[in-house]
Amino acid sequence: MSAPLRESRLTRRFEKLKEKDRAALVTFITANDPDPAVFRQLLEGLPTAGADIIELGMPFSDPMADGPSVQLSSQRAIKVGVTIDDVLGAVADMREWEMDTPVILMGYYNPIYCYGLAEFAEAAANAGVDGVIIVDLPPEEAEELNQHLRTNNLHMIFLAAPTTDGVRFPRVLEQASGFVYYVAVKGVTGTKSANISEVSARVAAMRTQTDLPLGVGFGIRTASQAAEMAQFADAVVVGSAIVDIITDGIDSEWRAKPGLATRVLDFVKDLANGVQAARLDSAENASTGVDA
Amino acid sequence: MAEARNTYRDGPDELGHFGLFGGRYVAETLMPLILEVERSYDAACADPSYAKELESFRTTYAGRPSPLYFAERLTDHFGGAKIYFKRDELNHTGSHKINNCLGQILLAKRMGKTRIIAETGAGQHGVATATVCARFGLECIVYMGAKDIERQKPNVFRMNLLGADVRAVDKGSATLKEAMNEALRDWVANVDDTYYLIGTAAGPHPYPAMVRDFQSVIGDEVKVQMAEAEGRLPDTLVACIGGGSNAIGLFHPFLDDGDVRLIGVEAAGNGINSGEHAASISGGNPGVLHGNRTYLLQDAGGQIRDAHSISAGLDYPGIGPEHAWLHLKGRVNYVSATDEEALAAFQLCSLLEGIIPALEPSHALSYVQKIAPELPSDHLLVVNLCGRGDKDVFTVAEALGSDLGAET
Lengths: 292, 408
Prior knowledge:
The structure holds two protein chains of two kinds. Chain A is of the alpha/beta class. Helices cover about 45% and strands about 15% of the residues of chain A.
């Protein structure tokens, strides 16, 4: 296993939430979706609405692991020409007024590869990014990027899937840092609902193999689903359900209708309430005691 | 990586890399599956009964070996090199695609998979996949770009007759690239029972190596047939390249025969300088897509560009990783031919040889037209006629008519 990174915004956030005995809410939106102005409103509002970690999508023309929701948001971003520099610029801008909320970038490998691996890692660190998730970069191929991320104290967050068994999981852990992102469904984003008991069993099994925080994402669409996952997971990721509100809140020319940002942030508040109350509820129900 | 090699035929390495290229760039959900495909393929290769079964189907079902034919009238017409056709268009289903499908369907059966998915561009791979699925009684879903469905209607109908579920993909350029994205998404969602039968020598390891192995029957046969016909090795081999499966199949057995010149012909569409082409090596640069690192058509930000070719089978913004490596090594010379040049060769071959070639090998034929006249009459040139042109008659009719009107 590679050496852990120095302390970071991300590790501090997980430590703090562990003290409070609650899970982190991770919210996903695609950078500059649906336009830079609304996107900025969202970034400004997310921490107060209850997003503990902000996950930003870097658009790619061929998002092979994403369902229709995220595909659409990616297309919208590409149509207006969103580049890696735009994404990093938005994060740097956010760091002017928000220093504590970790930002992780989610994307596919090719745009980063074209940007230059060392250049990307340095620019992302300078912008105030805390970690990256590269969907199509499994541990077998990740070292060429990860060496540069480590140099810049950036976390490389790896996915574990329902198909990742106990024999393979250590391979994922070799390079993982920050947290492990458990993909709760066999499928692309936003298309299936996660099965709570299956996910809970897998998370419990993974805990015997790592001390890293364990996040759960894919197939979590409502505050009550988020709350259920938050009883045992260290982080709950909601993406497509948020992106769908953006998709519903724009007109046929992809212009934001009034009140879009408020609707997104209200939904995030609901999610946050669910996640924050999750273990209180479960304690009241004298439930299982699966706390980390 | 140490480069102390005296062979071009020992790739890829254990991680699926051909030098800088290849590899496995897929979501974690698929990784365990891809590793299982690799293990199963290795086990199959070590089992003589697998090779025996494949050989039997090649002979009695696909109709191999395909003939090596001396194209006398084309040779006379060009007045230079002695031109041979490797007649892979005579295979069952009308193209080289059946070579790969037989190998992979027998593997899928060994793995206990019951549902087969595939992507297709021209429909040749879709037809070959639907064919073997019908033969082995397996469910078959073929993803095909909506634009390709439009221009390859005969093949869509054939797939339906064979019992396949052809699903239109209308995203992006609605061609092969999007069909492959959709197939990968299907696979992620159906990992338990589904086998992804990739049609070209690209995608994540082990597919590029596996597809190459199945297609190498082409080059192996040429070696034997040319020895019988001329008593020696050929001098030049020419094949068209989309993903590059027919080309790698022809070239691979000859890679270490240093005197044999190898030429891959990419689709230049409306010309490399027009930006509307499908020539990943001539007009692209290295990147990562669909599970492998290779040459891609992309913009400066790494977004994949739409390819263009009159030939649906070549209309793809990437190329198999072994070709990318062979290009870098200088072992294969990659050139290109435009839509217009391919159309001319399509007509010439039909008129002079009584063989209507597919638009894909018409690209190879058009390059032959460029080099053959300059070569001596004892120069043995083999062009891989990897598909027949029945599927293309509508496209060609429209293109020829369009010389008088608009449309491209």
